[in-house]
Amino acid sequence: MASSLSSSVVSDNGAFMEKFTLLPPNPSSSHQLPLTALTFAVKDIFDVEGHVTGFGNPDWARTHTAATSTAPAVLSVLKAGATCVGKTVMDEMAYSINGENIHYGTPVNPCAADRVPGGSSSGSAVAVGAMLADFSLGTDTGGSIRVPASYCGIFGFRPSHGLVSTSGVIPMAQSFDTVGWFARDPVILKKVGNILLELKDDNPATLGQLIIAEDCFDLLDIPRQLLTEVLITSVEKIYENQKIRHTCLGDFVEAKVPSLEHFMENKSIKQEGNIPSLVALSSAMRLLQRYEFKNNHGEWVHSVKPDLGPGISERVREALGSTDENIDVCYSLKNELRGALTELLGDFGILALPIVPGPPPKLQTEPTTLETFRAKAFSLLSVSIPLGMYDDLPIAVSLVAKHGSDGFLLNFVETIYNTLKEQCKLS
């Protein structure tokens, strides 16, 4: 594997931490490979041989040595003919979905320079959105692929948990950590998916039903029809209108995930403008996330006492103070939720959800406001599809298929996108 190194820099829209080139292992035969001539960038959470994996924080980089091997996910796309152009900026310790990094700067959102790019895979999303790479690798624990994809007007795919190797990737919370990727079009999105998921190109694209989560779209800060009408019209053009079904996701989850009752006793979740069962679900998932983060990195934080930016420091402190109370219930809840979604979706169903409550917040928004926005971001997501602009800001929708139906979902996105473009007048 040939490589040429350069010094660590933040450049090109602030997306890159370090610029270097990693060529396919056998460049002479790369013209026969599926990702030939495509370039990609890598979030600074993946090990690349000979480079320090910085995890978004200079104290982490200072206290860790260069990787002695390259993460399998990176190797897979290299072996498929793609060329790596460098590592990208990320939120510190992957503990944010905003994309602002006090140490290395904030990658510039190519759709709206005065808005956050979304994180924690901020640089990877910006690298693709700003056309500095054809695709990029990131990770998603609680929205870190899907949120920046939405904010930067590109495609982002979070695969089924456990299907893409996370070996050689610094863990955040293993129960949720996934290796995902960004692309500007559904063709490249699918090509990369075929490699990382080891798919054969024989997954059906026939839709069983499109399920619209009505209660979730009701919470949007923008007109809901901007997202739902284009989806419904596109599905009706390609398939037929009996393929459309409407549901109240909050009621379904409350009925089908019995362990949620442990997290619904708090009256504060029963407020106007939220869905109690989904707020309870988010609370449980965050509890498990904090617990696993503490187990992974608590000892390092205590010993090094790293300099952490605002928002991150509070989140890390909260994680380090967490206990194992209700953790067993969280694991049960996670399994119940997967079973419930499988029941809802069947083999060829797709659930449509908003990704975030509205367009990206402005840079340097007051932390408590960002935290409220973050808390309203939906966590039951899989692929983010850009749907153009509203008030000159990017908007997107999320589509979810049952666990393991990644090839079906990628094919569906490729099939429907040209019709979506016609409806949205996307460029």
Automatic annotation (TrEMBL):
SUPFAM superfamilies recorded: Amidase signature (AS) enzymes
Family as reported in the entry's similarity comment: Belongs to the amidase family.
PROSITE patterns linked to this entry: AMIDASES
The name this protein goes by in its record: Amidase domain-containing protein
PANTHER family hit by this protein: AMIDASE 1 (PTHR46310)
Coiled-coil ranges from the UniProt annotation: none
Residue ranges of domain Amidase in the record: 31-185
Species this protein is from: Buddleja alternifolia
Pfam families xrefs: Amidase
GO molecular function: hydrolase activity, acting on carbon-nitrogen (but not peptide) bonds, in linear amides
InterPro entries recorded: Amidase_CS, Amidase_dom, AS_sf
